[in-house]
TrEMBL record:
This is Elongation factor 4. One of its GO terms (molecular function) is translation elongation factor activity. InterPro entries: EF-4, EFG_III/V, EFG_V-like, EFTu-like_2, G_TR_CS, LepA_C_sf, LepA_CTD, LepA_IV. Its EC number is 3.6.5.n1. It comes from Hyphobacterium vulgare.
Amino acid sequence: TNPAHIRNFSIVAHIDHGKSTLADRLIQFTGGLTEREMKEQVLDNMDIERERGITIKAQTVRLEYPAKDGETYVLNLIDTPGHVDFAYEVSRSLYACEGALLVVDAAQGVEAQTLANVYQAIDADLDIVPVLNKIDLPAAEPERVCQQIEDVIGIDASEALRISAKTGVGIPDVLEAIVTRLPAPKPGDPEAPLKALLVDSWYDTYLGVICLVRIMEGTLKKGMKVRLMGTGAAYHVDGVGVFRPAKQVVDSLGPGEIGFLNASIKQVRDARVGDTVTDDRRPTGTPLPGFKPAVPVVFCGLFPVDSAEFEDLRDAVERLALNDASFSFEMETSAALGFGFRCGFLGLLHLEVIRERLEREYNVDLITTAPSVIYKITMTDGTVIDLHNPADMPDPVKINTIAEPWITATIFVPDEYLGGVLKLCQDRRGIQRELTYAGSRAMVVYELPLNEVVFDFYDRLKSITKGYASFDYQWKDYREDDLVKMSVLVNDEPVDALSMIVHRSRAEARGRGMCEKLKDLIPRHMFKIPIQAAIGGRIIARETLSALRKDVTAKCYGGDATRKRKLLDKQKEGKKKMRQFGRVDIPQEAFIAALKMD
Ligand code: GTP
């Protein structure tokens, strides 16, 4: 295809502002899908994505559009994930585009991820067309939202499109705008040595690793031998194609085009995103700048509830990692939990998504230990270590300083909930940097220790604001502080899975809260159980779970046999998901619930 007739673009938006719905409409209007196929949202194809309405794996689709100027254009839409944890995937896909549609819900206005995502698009030098979606809603205020886009983001919104992705109003204007207001890719020489950007890669059961590539120069053909310049490995190209959205084989891809190649690459790790794909026999002299690899920032231990399931867990974790190069894992043994894995994630949502997939798709019951960030510990002898498991904390007398990561958080919230949000940030050791109003919403910027955010910040924020706040964060820096390891003892035995690193000033309150929660969560036993929190050898909080005195069935007076059986069944049910610590059974929920702060 002549590059002048190609448009490569992304849609950037806050979650729920209608990105997937718009993508489906564009596919439908250009004939890529029948009405029946439309029923299922096609671009979000994983179960969990659909349930939670979030896009995780970036996907692309090629549309053919006969424009008003009489020419037929190839429009390559690159779907980008909308959530902060996947910011890295957003940024890498943007480098394959020349333009972006900025979708803003006309009733909601600009939100935290609108801002984060559009700034990435601006950083990637893309041309941006603002699109106000959901104008069919009675609450839509397109004028106000246009003004807000100009005030908050600082781009011209006078020619923003007004559409409803749901009803289809304005979709033809979007297609025209893509052609007339977004630039074509820079022309490249089809005869030059191949130079292509590896935009994304994922594992396909039938074809092995599939690489999504954007051709800069040269031509990619089936049968040629390509080299990935970052790793140096060469592969025979078994197939070349495009997504329409179903895979369609093509003869070749030329400059400006986006498509896929499959080349019997075994692991996603071997096809590194940002790598340059070139011709093995005639390599380009100038590889593309490349990307930073996505680094995990949140860690936690995953252990099977039933230790006999360890091999199943290993299998599941390995298979998941095949398709997610940003998920890392290594074996871990815990005195209390036995064998498991220490896993690294891009953020909390990533953690939750992986945990859910393991439980649901791979059918293993898991115990998740306290999430931790990476602490930088300077020892008295000057060495610095990265600590991402509180259980590995060195002896405090050998520690000189401990530093923890900080983030800058941007929160958009309706006025009436502002007080609650400020209090939450303050309680989490936050430092306020900015407080501005845009309409009836406030934009608050806080610096926060990531450690205070990884536990249940999202959950708390949502409940305080009834779901109306939006949140996004950026990495800031490392800061030293007075941090200590708090351990939890149940029946005088340390439960390493519950130990955590906290700020000294918060330790007592956290310890007390944790002991109180555990007291409610652990069922009573035939003996008295002390539950304690400690820093080093010093107990800072204590609760006692009193002994069970009577048989649970005693109060059934022996008369009602079915009730008695039900009660016993219920007990058995409860037993299933428990782990034994010394003589004490701790239910699985206790591990997660105990970590939530109120
Ligand atoms: P993520 O995939 O989570 O990033 O969300 P998204 O931005 O792709 O949003 P999605 O397309 O899933 O739409 C979110 C919700 O808004 C869905 O319930 C849609 O049906 C609804 N929606 C999308 N466009 C419109 C519209 O034009 N009008 C109305 N009334 N609802 C819409």
